[in-house]
Design brief:
The structure is a homodimer of 381-residue chains.
Chain A: E1 11-14, H1 16-29, H2 34-49, H3 58-69, E2 80-84, E3 88-92, H4 98-116, E4 118-126, H5 132-140, E5 145-150, E6 173-177, E7 185-189, H6 196-205, E8 214-215, E9 221-222, H7 227-230, E10 234-235, H8 246-262, E11 288-295, H9 297-301, H10 306-318, H11 334-346, E12 348-351, H12 352-365
Parallel strand pairs in A: 3-4
Antiparallel strand pairs in A: 1-12, 2-3, 4-11, 5-6, 5-11, 6-7, 8-9, 8-10
Helix pairs in contact in A: 1-2, 2-4, 4-5
Chain lengths: 381, 381
Amino acid sequence: MQISEVDTAGQVRVDHDELIAFVARIFTGRGLPADRARIAADALVYGDAAGLGSHGLANLNKLYLPLFDDDRVDPAGELAVTSDRGAAAVIDAAGTLGLWTASAVLDNAADRAQRYGVGVCFVRNATHFGCAGYHTREQALRGRIALLSSNCGAQRIARPPGGRYAMLGTNPLSIAAPAGDAAPYVLDMSTTAVPTGKIRQAARRGDPIPSGWLVDESGAPLTDPTALDRGDGFPTWLGGSPETGAYKGYGLALAVEVLSALVSGAALGPAPEAYTGSGGPTGRDDDIGYFAMVIDPGAARGDSAMGPAAAGMFATLRACAPVDPAQPVGYPGLREDEKLRAARSDGVAMDFALWDEVRKVASAEGVEPPTLVSGSNEVGA
Amino acid sequence: MQISEVDTAGQVRVDHDELIAFVARIFTGRGLPADRARIAADALVYGDAAGLGSHGLANLNKLYLPLFDDDRVDPAGELAVTSDRGAAAVIDAAGTLGLWTASAVLDNAADRAQRYGVGVCFVRNATHFGCAGYHTREQALRGRIALLSSNCGAQRIARPPGGRYAMLGTNPLSIAAPAGDAAPYVLDMSTTAVPTGKIRQAARRGDPIPSGWLVDESGAPLTDPTALDRGDGFPTWLGGSPETGAYKGYGLALAVEVLSALVSGAALGPAPEAYTGSGGPTGRDDDIGYFAMVIDPGAARGDSAMGPAAAGMFATLRACAPVDPAQPVGYPGLREDEKLRAARSDGVAMDFALWDEVRKVASAEGVEPPTLVSGSNEVGA
């Protein structure tokens, strides 16, 4: 790569489809069947393409490849339905790669929903699924409503309000629904104020973090992101202080723990081994639990009236007069959809540090790196 | 009533069961069948007994009896299943009293869950259900996991972030799960920072509200609770500012709207008629939609292992060493359960203003008021 390919903002652009094919080649090289590798690659690249970089390619070298190195993932493992009641099933994910597993179990739930109106899979023994919203969005694009949540297995990151030990993960939750021809609604959230990836991203960049993301032992806000991994900064729950809803964020994290891990029998955050350490993050995110629910509106209702109603509802929100005319009203999923379209037509933008990492991974895995798109050096200039 | 029955804090205590019987007599007097009236009364008194006074007896005269006066409720209406796919059903609630309807549709979902592992009811044409957590807790007491959410029909209270018009209700959401012999886990939350009842309660008392509950047109925090009903104070979403998660609270409100109203075909908050008025609250909470889901863990898993796991998980949280030894760690539902036990044994405490209102309602409805418990004058003294 020539330096002229890098723009003044230190960004390059990589063809979207070529980037997916590149990641898929890496995953097939690690033993994933081709159809799984394609979905897993699409899910991972979605993070960068949709502007959710903390869950994108940066995790390839940092999170996913180490799972393969340490035999913590079984690339060709078979999902096993251990209990089947028609609309609901319990599934042992056999340690398969979560970037694929999450889409597979939502597809399984969708088949159930087509028959029963609703379909639910309780999943144990799963691994990290990347952006929850990638997987639910795929269902919304097919006219369905999907809900996906995940605990963090035995990894403990956040403390119950007033507690001294970390007992829960960031416990992400996503729900998506169609919005007619417009971008689907896709809520994708951690139940902490922000996911740890955003705190660590700031730490890598040497940036301070806004007040409200981390607190110290006494509950006072911290702006130093490195406090998280030092074990003396603790993620705050969605809602902030008890007066403004911290117990709701905590309560939602417990909802995710119940739905995703307690029913399926996955590893739980609140387990006695949490009573150790400094109060900072402990444990590993193995044996993760998912809750995957799909609603098939046509099957549930017996008619096709929900589609136009959904289109109307989300169009109404977008048409709401804004307080600031330069800031139109939107809904979760809209901005991500715009970025995704731009990435598909103009390439996925990545900063030089990430691009450098991608090339190193390519070399280490013995796979050709993707080529930069023509004119890439003008990005952001 | 003698003045000696009122304690120095202006509180009286009323026998818990007698209070329920009193409210049930009022509801049967308004045409509710006795079995429905009993459940509706239990649900309403739960608000006061569990320490959630903004959703308790204060709403009898303010919210529920006016629904009867205005023929906005059909006390003996029959729930109609308009679509049935086994695990999922769409139900027309026929304008029945939500305090009863919500429990009835969760029972319906529970029957479905016993057969399919999961059961879901999408409900339209419903009315206000009081404390969502009352209804889900009843399922948790029977070993099930329950989720209940409700939009606010055509009543619009909160504005989308950056929007000029109110387009959504406070859209409450509750989830409950068993915790062995301990108090069930019961999350019961509005998707705004606080429910409007808490803001109006402060307004009635002449108290200021904490920063983070209401904002003005520019987004600056307000501490005057009367701004809400003047139309120049707007409820904030759970999460506070965009940096700390406002889009998550808004996104959760949309999740409730989708699940509760879009699938069932109930009235939607985001409808073109919202583009009117001052930007403050508009519309009426008629044709409310509910989403009611029950998971039967034994049926879904095919074994009874979840019960002990749930007991262990919630016991582990309670055993977490607290930062402040005087403030033990808990979980949503624990404090409400303690208050409920105290109310059942010692009577339901209510301030004199509410007790006075109860006696006036009794007189107007031609029903004997409940008697005060012996020693009531010592409450809080």
